[in-house]
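Protein modeling request. Please complete all fields; requests missing the sequence field cannot be processed.
Requester role: graduate student
Desired output: 3D structure, token encoding
Chains: 1
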Amino acid sequence: MWVKVCGMTSEVAVSSALIAGVDAIGFVFAPSRRRVTPQQALKMSAGVPTRIQRIAVMLHPSRQEVAEVLSVFKPDVLQCDWQDLESLRLPSELTVLPVLRAGCELPAELPKRFLFEGAVSGTGETADWELAARLAGQGELILAGGLNSGNVTEAIRAVRPFGVDVSSGVESLPGVKDAAKIFAFVHMARSEVRD
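Delivered output (195 residues):
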């Protein structure tokens, strides 16, 4: 099970996620309590091994914002709503992670790998698992939205996603990651696969 912890705001959070064994960490460059600058993201991710994907999370960004994130932070992946990605001119070598949202228009052809969540990011509300399960059969779906160590096992059984993405579900306060919650989430997500 591919696991991403999103909304990194400190080096301690990054370290906790790495020790827990995540596959990816996300840095938010959109209006949010978890928003960081490209410079902060670069500093926080300085010691991250190359096998861990550093994902820049953006929402309706301007070309200038994208250019700054790409030139300063140099992410491995750009995560953005699929409609945004279609209007941006991006380097061909940049990996993208399109976001599809419950209750919103879906692309005519699903991307090979995509993130699926609710209509609004960062609210802690679960996405439509029934729709997610249907989409998971058509590509590598990463499930996000309202996940935590208490419901991730149920979510994986219901949706059978390629991966899971958590942010508020591993926080002690909004924007403050909790190491114990990160460990518990990763453990529960991966233990379901072993069962």
